[in-house]
TrEMBL record, chains A, B:
Localization: Cytoplasm
Protein name: Proline--tRNA ligase
Naturally occurring in which organism (per UniProt): Massilia glaciei
Gene: proS
Domain commentary: Consists of three domains: the N-terminal catalytic domain, the editing domain and the C-terminal anticodon-binding domain.
Physiological role: Catalyzes the attachment of proline to tRNA(Pro) in a two-step reaction: proline is first activated by ATP to form Pro-AMP and then transferred to the acceptor end of tRNA(Pro). As ProRS can inadvertently accommodate and process non-cognate amino acids such as alanine and cysteine, to avoid such errors it has two additional distinct editing activities against alanine. One activity is designated as 'pretransfer' editing and involves the tRNA(Pro)-independent hydrolysis of activated Ala-AMP.
Domain of life of the native organism: Bacteria
One GO process term, biological-process aspect: prolyl-tRNA aminoacylation
């Protein structure tokens, strides 16, 4: 490519609505242009990166035996009604009516359509397994689109769907996709981590997220450096910090703690470590019993320095549909205000659920259900009935790994892929069956597998940038090499050597752009550093007379002299490393 | 590709709603699957053809200096309001509201968005010319979607937009695109014709349509075999059939023609040729004059054997907003009923417009404005005042070419591309200006250029099929070559030779599929003839023992014996021819 035949439009400043570095750099590099809230035109440089990302995904999906098709954007409401998602999905599902008043969804994913395709095509177990995928535009009407391509409304996604005859087959298909995803993210040249994920409301039997590691990531990834344990924060099991409970050593004492509604304040006032305190979270569960609406009081107990994990709470039997208690409910149940709640002496009956760590504590501090008072020296069995015990908290660095093979570390990530064992959730709802070996109809076992194509761009930049701009990994860079001739228009020697190299690199299959715009060096270099092309060769008259070109990798602090005769091989070496 | 790793699902019968052969064959070959009215999933075989079509378009667009980007599907109403198209476009523009009630169009084309992109990026004439294109999903909410991919609602289009500083630049950009389109359709291997087109309501200064020639085409293409004149029926100028008017030879006579309301009936009754008759078409024009609504009576005169061309009528000065007269208006103006109207002796004043051919007729027959009577021997100047003269009719085969270089022929075509000189229609409405050499703002001169990507599939099939199925041109075939081994699973010799050929063809860059499904020959051959793969090689035990493979081109009536040693070179010869 020649820069004069391409469209390059860089900016010194990012627009004020660009809050994160990837959004700022993509706008400044001219990769994207905002059309509306969460809707972007992919400008020529941005589109080149997208196409490279798509090509790698496509190759690895094909290699893994998945078959590409293309499902429509505009999908009839009737299919979405079959699975109930037409009603279940909120306003993030973009809905549209045609001229005849018929309703359609603009697809955010395609489970319904692929299940409809397959139920029309698959008759027998002999046709299985099958895995279909497409790379398609998606729309999700986010309430608050932001962060450029990270949380846009219109975006590109690769979604694949596997169909198997039984659970073992589905798990095998899942494994193939898991491995394909690992291959894809490896080829992107990004540091990534696959973590076990919670299955969430969608149901199913297993799921993993693929995250690009970046300190700016929204998600916390939990892993054990000495084993292969890895999970996201929702799914990471927290072990009790003490293996067994110590015997009670102190007497229960009601202690004045005026104005201290937080564990940190109580610990400071009493001169104790925060890890000696226990905080109380009051919940209400409303349900129908024998046709009557009843309210239950529940209490969660967490160590003062721990954080509640709401996904785990929802899994406690009885708490699937809980909510936090209102101040009025708290007053009625505990006889006091928030900040002084505890398990000893509540006004109304409360079901107590202690986090595993709290269940093994002795001589702890908790609220006394009396304003400005806490108990010290509280002990299970003696002062309070034994509680229900559950894993309620987020893990923290240094916790024991649930596999018993080390301690946990935490890093930040950006979710860019998700593989999911769906089981028969969709096939049962849509009556997508096949005839098994005995000629009996059975529902298809499904898996679904997504990669956020356009999100990859943002995640790659969040992981790879400096104060000059983007630093693309070679495999997904808009160009692999940029040739920067000095006075291309004026000095024949420079022009001739640039053209020779350009031809030789193209012949070698290198994706190269020559900057023939005739800019001054400073402006030219700034453009390519901002755009993030990984390899740069400067062709200058003085250097040529000395028999040298100047090579500089995007992360290099200094240039390297390379002879014109050696430059193609030199660059091929850099590109393959 | 191996058939067992691909998805092949052919059908004996097409669904009853498939009215035309391309729709029937695409459904039977398993290329597309209907999701809703005018909305199709592109199944794996169909998608392969689409990707090949897109790749050829992309290569030629890039070669022509156009730059690829990707504009969003969901486009804010505000931009469409700037050009007035939000209101002008009817229900075929699919409109959607987001969760905040903001309105958007699902794009049918992208003039507004590209003009918005460019007005934000282009400051100076130095940045021009520019040509941006994208290949993107489009939606048009057709009232009556039909014919499969020919008139779908969701479809894929390549649309390009050129921006120039002046008319000459725009015309040069237009020429480059015209030539690129010719290269694209040539590479597809389709017989096509570019014809001059009417500019229609969109305005602008020039336009051509590209048609795939097919006897089933909806459009009539007019061309001169001995010159380069070519136009569609709307734009093809009709010359007068006689160069000059003959002198009057007969007396005007009012003749009883009871019950003959059509020219054919009158000619038969009077024993005259149909070409001696003239038919009258009564029009009404309503307009405001000095704040008052007035009605004008107009009459069009056409030779009895000619067809009215309504696009030409609308171009007659004064007739831009005409309509056909109602029966009541006819009775009031002519004093008689339709079937007996004519230019002699109307009850009210009528502006008479004669087609060029009618204006040069003598001794003709026309209605007498009296039920059951016609005039014979009617003559201009003597019996009727000289009329206004205009080109009002469709040309017919054998008409003189407007360039004077031969006579016209007509063939049928399917429109698959359109190039259009837009001028400043969009840039002026959207204030997309640049600073010219004198530092003065001037509106950008635009052109737009479309290719119906998915429609190409239908058109190619309408041009290339037989009673067995589709016959793809090599360049856009889903596979170039199919290997059909007989008893692949059972006979090692067959399996080994098939694998050797498969490897050799892949290494030679041939797009080959091996049918390893183990089907019987009849079913296997029928599948590939239906799918339309252009080259087939049968590998059988008996042939191999005799040192032969059987090659058969999709259009060949018999197979050709080729030795295993020669087959790769033989196929390469076929593919490059």
């Amino acid at each position: 490519m020649r820069a004069t035949r391409f469209f390059i439009s860089t900016q010194k400043e990012a627009p004020s609505d660009a809050e994160i570095v990837s959004h700022q750099l993509m706008m400044r590099a001219g990769m994207i242009k905002r059309l509306g809230s969460g809707i972007y035109t992919y400008m020529p440089i941005g589109l080149r990166v997208i196409r490279k990302v798509e090509a790698i995904i496509r190759e690895e999906m094909n290699k893994a035996g998945a078959i590409e098709l293309l499902m429509p954007l505009v999908q009839p409401a009737e299919l979405w009604q079959e699975t109930g998602r037409w009603d279940k999905m909120g306003p993030e599902l973009m809905r549209v009516k045609d001229r005849h008043g018929r309703e359609y969804a603009i697809q955010p994913t395609s489970e319904e359509v692929i299940t409809d395709v397959v139920r029309g095509e698959i008759k027998s177990y002999r046709q299985l397994p099958l895995n279909f995928y497409h790379i398609q535009t998606k729309f999700r009407d986010e309430r608050r689109p932001r962060f450029g391509l990270m949380r846009g409304r219109e975006f590109t996604m690769k979604d694949a769907y596997s169909f198997d005859r039984d659970l073992a087959g589905m798990q095998a298909s899942y494994k193939v996709m898991f491995d394909a995803y690992s291959a894809i993210f490896t080829r992107f040249g990004l540091r990534f981590r696959a973590v076990a994920a919670d299955n969430g409301a969608i149901g199913g039997t297993g799921s993993h997220e693929f995250h690009v590691i970046a300190s700016t990531g929204e998600d916390a990834l939990v892993y054990c450096p000495t084993s292969d344990f890895a999970a996201n924060m929702e799914a990471a099991e927290a072990m009790p910090l003490a293996a067994a409970r110590a015997p009670a050593g102190a007497a229960l004492a009601k202690t004045a703690t005026p104005g201290t509604t937080k564990c940190e304040q109580v610990a400071a006032l009493l001169g104790l470590e925060l890890s000696r305190t226990v905080k109380t979270i009051a919940l209400t569960v409303e349900k129908e019993v024998d046709g009557k609406q009843v309210k239950e009081n529940w209490m969660l107990l967490l160590r003062g320095d721990h954080e509640l994990n709401e996904v785990k709470v929802a899994k406690v039997p009885g708490l699937a549909t809980h909510r936090f208690a209102t101040e009025a409910e708290i007053l009625e149940c505990y006889g006091t205000v928030p900040g002084y709640l505890g398990p000893i002496g509540t006004r109304a009956p409360v079901t107590v659920v202690a986090d595993r760590t709290v269940a093994n504590m002795a001589d702890f501090v908790c609220g006394a259900n009396d304003k400005d008072f806490h108990y010290t020296g509280a002990n299970w069995g003696r002062d309070i009935a034994e509680p229900l015990v559950a894993d309620l908290r987020n893990v923290v660095e240094g916790d024991a790994s649930p596999d018993g093979k080390g301690v946990l570390a935490i890093e930040r990530g950006i979710e860019v892929g998700h593989v999911f064992q769906l089981g028969t959730a969709y096939s049962a709802a849509m009556k997508a069956t096949f005839l098994d070996e005995n000629g009996k109809p059975a529902p298809l076992q499904m898996g679904c597998y997504g990669i956020g194509v356009t999100r990859i761009l943002g995640a790659a930049i969040e992981q790879n940038f400096d104060d000059k701009g983007i630093i693309w990994p070679g495999a997904i860079a808009p160009f692999e090499v940029v040739l920067c001739p000095m006075n291309y228009d004026k000095i024949e020697m420079v022009r001739a050597e640039t053209e020779r190299m350009y031809g030789a690199l193209q012949a070698a299959g290198v994706d190269v752009i020559v900057d023939d715009r005739g800019l001054r060096p400073g402006a030219m270099f700034a453009d390519w550093e901002l755009i993030g092309v990984p390899h740069r060769v400067v062709i200058g008259e003085r250097g040529l007379k000395e028999g040298n070109l100047e090579y500089q990798g995007r992360r290099d602090t200094e240039a390297t002299a390379v002879t014109p005769a050696a430059i193609v091989e030199f660059l091929q070496g850099k590109l393959s490393s």
